[in-house]
Amino acid sequence: MASQQMAFGALALNTLGPPFETQAAQTTYINQYLRALTSHEIGHVLGLRHNFLGSTLLSPQELNDPAITQSQGMLSSIMDYFPPNLAPPGQPQGDYFPTRLGPYDLWAIEYGYRPTTNQMTATAELQRIANRSGGPELAYAADEDIIDFLDPKANAWDLSNDPLHYAQGQMANARAIWEQLDWFSLNPGENYGHLRQRVDLVFEYYLHQS
After folding, report:
1. Cα gap 149→144, rounded to integer Å
2. Most buried one in 87, 89, 132, 142, CB count within 10 A?
3. pLDDT value at residue 187
4. Interacting residues of 144 by C-beta distance below 8 A, sequence separation 6+
């Protein structure tokens, strides 16, 4: 699924009009993806588990406001499975992927790695950190929480705190790409298998949002 999400974003950049189609946008997309992916994997190295509520931090509108995403984070946790952030047709595009850690990540790392100089007060210091866990930006749902769909907010490959609004925007993106696909001609060196891959990619993305 990760490769499909990445591929759909790349297809959007190659198919839709401004601001997606520029070389600068494509370079930014790749660089932000690699940075976010690396941060996620380093999180595992440091002991962080998946957090499938990480994608529920911002509203769909806030996702494309760099002043918010670059100061607060696009996600509350980089340990979620998140799709590329693609603005719906006609709306301004912000960052494609998280460019910084989220508040949950910073909080979890603080709890696990903050140095303590006094063993007599270490437990109390850790408890003070743990007592902040009630904040919505520190919400947590691990892998086992998404198996039975007990919490509708805990999902992989979703984005924003308004899943219906977000899904409608992404379905509009899929339809826009669908309309731009050239059904009867191929790029040099391609065969119809390549065209079929693009069609399947858009259809599966649309189906996932529905």
Report:
1. 9
2. 87
3. 75
4. none
